[in-house]
Structures are given as C-alpha cells and as structure tokens.
Amino acid sequence: AATHIGGLTIHSWSGIGIKSELTKRDLDKIASTDYITRRMKSARVLIIDEVSMLAPDTLDMVDAVCRFVRSSIAVFGGLQVVLVGDFFQLPPIIKKEIQNNAQTKLLDTAPLGRFAHHARAWVETSPAVCYLTEQYRQDDQDFLTVLSAIRANTFGQSHLDHIEKRKIKLD
Which of 71, 23, 32, 51 lies closest to 121, judged by CA? Predict the structure, then answer.
C-alpha cells in the first residue's frame, strides 16, 4: 500500500532493514547513507501504518535511528509521529530459535512486551489515542454485530445461528 502513495515500509525508510538489533556501527552506517539521512532530516511527520504488526524492539530501533540521524535526544528525533492501526488485527510475527534445530518457529503464546505499545519509544511519545467509531466497510448491521462479537470475544449462539442461516449448501 505504501508504494501507491510514494511511501516506504518503516524498515526501508529508517534503514534498519531486517535487523533485530542495532549496534553503533549499524547507526554509523545508516547515518552515512545520504538518501536515508536526506529523507529523515527533511521529514516533518512520520506516519506508521499497521502499527499492530510492529514489534516493540523495531519501533525502538526506528526511534534510535531518528535520534541519531537528526542529532536530537527528543523521541523520534523530534519528528511528529502518527501511529495508525488496530491491535485487534494482525500481531507482530516473532520468531524463536528451536534448541538443537536450525529452523525457526512462530511462538505459540504472546510474550510480554510483544506489541508496539510496549516499546520504550511509545511510552516516551505518550501518544494521544483516537478511536474511530464509524464503520465504512460494512453496512449490514447483523454482520457488523457478528464481527463486533468476534472482536470483543463475546461470540455466542445467536451469532452462530446468524452465520448458519447464511450458509449455502452445495450438492
């Protein structure tokens, strides 16, 4: 979606790529990359969409790069940050090395500190949270009720009955 509006992924924009941690050497390399420093220094607002999919350490790395490149101790180097997303949607993917095995596996349970709002940068930013209440993607009130019940973990028999009524039996 970012490419449709001339945007970049946060990993590309910040220069962190797929790193899971940053060293001083990494920061120096990113800061010496002209196209990254130019766009980061000229930016006034940083919009991060799908923030629910961003791990806290990734958000903290972006913050560290912004502070370093912009030579500012302010959170995100003084950039205004707009975080957009729904934490009831997709969570970050976290990999765990399996002992005695070179393969990786998705964690079965979410560890503490899994979400972007657990990041130090999020806490320091102390963002104003805005909840959108209008639904524009669906106008079927019964279906919206089912979706809301799933979201709130209150799905019950009446919701299941509604879904069952909509089933199309194939012969």
Answer: 51
Query: What's the CA gap between 160 and 127, in Å, rounded?
Result: 38
pTM of the predicted protein model: 0.79
Do the beta carbons of residue 52 and residue 8 sit within 8 Å? no
CA distances from 98 to 86, 92, 118, 125, 150 (A): 30, 19, 25, 35, 33
State pLDDT tens for residues 18-69.
998 999 999 999 999 999 999 999 999 999 999 999 999 999 999 999 999 9
3-class state of residue 45 by DSSP = strand
96 bridge partner residues: 105
